[in-house]
Amino acid sequence: MKKNCLLAVCMVTAAFVTNLSAQTYQPNWESLDKRPTPQWYLDAKFGIFIHWGVYSVPGYAPKGNYSEWYQYWLQTKAFKGAVVDYHNKKFGAGTTYYQLAPQFKAELYNPDEWAKVIESSGAKYVVLTSKHHDGYALWPSKDASRDWGFPWNAAEVGPKRDLLGDLFTALRKTSVHPGMYYSLYEWYNPLWLKDKDAYIKNHMWPQMKDVITTYKPDVFWTDGEWELPAERWKSQEFLTWAFNESPVKDRLVVNDRWGKDNRFKHAGFFTPEYQPELDFPNHAWEESRGMGYSYGYNREEDAWDYNSTQSLIISLVDKVSRGGNFLLDIGPDEHGKIPPIMQERLLQMGDWMKINNEAIYSTVRWKRPHQWSEGKTDYKPKKDDFKTVEDLMLKLTIDPEPGYAVQECFFTYNPTANNLYAIIPKWPSDRKFTIKDITLDQNAVLQLLDTKESLQWKQDGKNVIVSLPEFDPNKIKSQYAYVIKMNNTGK
């Protein structure tokens, strides 16, 4: 009898899994929006964006701007001609952007080293720019060279190698999921400028199918969608193929950039960009940002333009506390080296994650993401100050303006283990931390995640007062933020 019951359970389970994988999606948002976000992505929380291409050769934009837009700034004589002046001095007047491609040699590119540093950071996925708005492909794209009329991919001009494929091979030796960014449009592609529908049919679609079929990414991150509506891009039709027929149909994660006015509305995870104020409690989302301001490598940025490790960790914690992911960008140079300051930030974040990742991975938004101190909670930086002057996350947590409150702690919750985590950016000088508006069972066990030592606590009305130990830097290694774990608590 037991064997028959077990067999029946197995058959039902198998039927359920088969039915799930056989789900057929239709080319409309009503159907496509019902596709669940793959769980691996929801659990991952932390990813690395990589902007790398011909624009890495000049590696320049005025501070507070994107260097990966170099070709556009050059063509439009932006910033009162500042980019043109830089270009003429460095490369000579009359040198075109396309003539920079042979200098994109990537001769020091070691994808295994990249993968090692990224895995050491604690990140669980990577999104590499397979092709940015300049149309230059990091893989052997025949479509790119054909439609531009000259070699315009990394296998034919510049590095003379498959940069995308080499990184994917390296990442698959690690625990990091490989993914790619792809720009739908190309600023100056002759076919795009002549016939947009022909470009979509004969250039964009073949390229997208090529990279997905060949490299089998876990993330396909589109951009450059703002020129046309999704219907003109035929985005619904493409996603139907991706979810029903592609070789990664069951694990592929996509974002929301599939047509103008589509962002924050349809498809996969939503993608705020330098928009920390945005919140999406009922939808998967991910905020991206650079370590400086530019996504591509920018020689104009100085050490003080880069966010501190503490700020980046608090940014990660902030996103996770609100149920989102954090996509942190690095911009390698034209030689294929990740700048040392970026490597340092990644490794320091990794040191923190080794100790505290339990409070990050596989967690969800709790009933409130953070708690405020006394004071005003509506602080906003002056226009564009966040680009080059001010570290917003530190203003909201460590260094507030007079009269403004700080976010004293962030909450994350693991529903499987029923563990609640309070992540505090500042170690209290009196070694007392008050968790507001919470009632704990009298037998609850609280720990400092860094040292695993139990913490004394007491219920004080609607609050819990936690006693922390003396801060001993020989024992407490976290430095940037500290995690109080509340076992079997949080419902």
From TrEMBL:
SUPFAM superfamilies: (Trans)glycosidases. Its EC number is 3.2.1.51. Alpha-L-fucosidase is responsible for hydrolyzing the alpha-1,6-linked fucose joined to the reducing-end N-acetylglucosamine of the carbohydrate moieties of glycoproteins. It comes from Danxiaibacter flavus. InterPro entries: FUC_metazoa-typ (IPR016286), Fucosidase_C (IPR031919), GH (IPR017853), Glyco_hydro_29 (IPR000933), Glyco_hydro_29_N (IPR057739), Glyco_hydro_b (IPR013780). Residues 18-358 form the Glycoside hydrolase family 29 N-terminal domain. Belongs to the glycosyl hydrolase 29 family. It holds the Pfam family Fucosidase_C. Residues 1-22 form the signal peptide. This is alpha-L-fucosidase. Keywords: Glycosidase, Hydrolase, Signal. It comes from the Bacteria. Residues 407-486 form the Alpha-L-fucosidase C-terminal domain. Gene3D superfamilies: Glycosidases, Golgi alpha-mannosidase II.
